[in-house]
Amino acid sequence: MIERHHFQSIPSTQDLAKTRQDQLRGETWRLITADEQTQGRATHNKNWQSPPHVNLYATFSLLIPPAKNAVLFNVPQVTAYSIIKALQQFGFTPKFKWVNDILINRKKICGILCESFGKVLHIGMGINVNMPQAICEQLDQPVTSLMVVSGREIDKEQLLTIIQAELYKNINQLFTESFAPFHTELDEFLEYKNEEIMFDPMSANTTVVKGLLLGIDQKGQLILKLPNDEIKIFYNGRLVRPQ
After folding, report:
1. What ranges do the domains of the chain cover?
2. Three-class SS string for 8-25?
3. Taking the model in full, what pTM does it have?
4. Is 153:130 a contact under the CB 8 Å cutoff?
5. CB neighbours of residue 181 within 10 Å
6. CATH tag, 2-188
7. Under CATH, which number does the domain 196-242 receive?
């Protein structure tokens, strides 16, 4: 069961969700959505541009089942998988940029922000749905929207309904069966696979490395083949840019 709370304008669905996390009970999820965010957040403390009425801004909150913290690393990936499966139903062919972005035509269409605090998990997402090309061009990275890609407006509520069903099903499956059911298909969705990329491990005493992106392993970690043919597995980090 998911109970929804919608707002016209708030600073951040993610931040509001955190202030209300003590109210969560049992297996009921809470969904907070907004027409506009004035202080939207992305990963690495970046801002998420959230113009009013055109996009989907949402945070799902739920209690983490006992002894399931080991799979929290995979939550962003399974969230991306769920959104990709929903977008496919609208005729799109999105790709997964490890570890928490979704691209179409190599331009960002969705960002995912997952945070856990104690026994509570918050799954935030911002999806560019009907954002016009003019706004996309103003942003500081290659960005697109479903409307720009398809040439038509997309029903945000219909999209949210499908994402909600996919996410609820898949996150519960992750908690019961771990990451294995999602590995093969998500690996097929991986953007830049079998291409040389630049990767930032984002850990102490490390630098950006170049390597051939081989895929993701059974645990959802990134597999790179370095120029010296060494195979490296990365649990954390971000793709800086394709080579």
Report:
1. 2-188, 196-242
2. EEECCHHHHHHHCHHHCC
3. 0.94
4. yes
5. 15
6. 3.30.930.10
7. 2.30.30.100
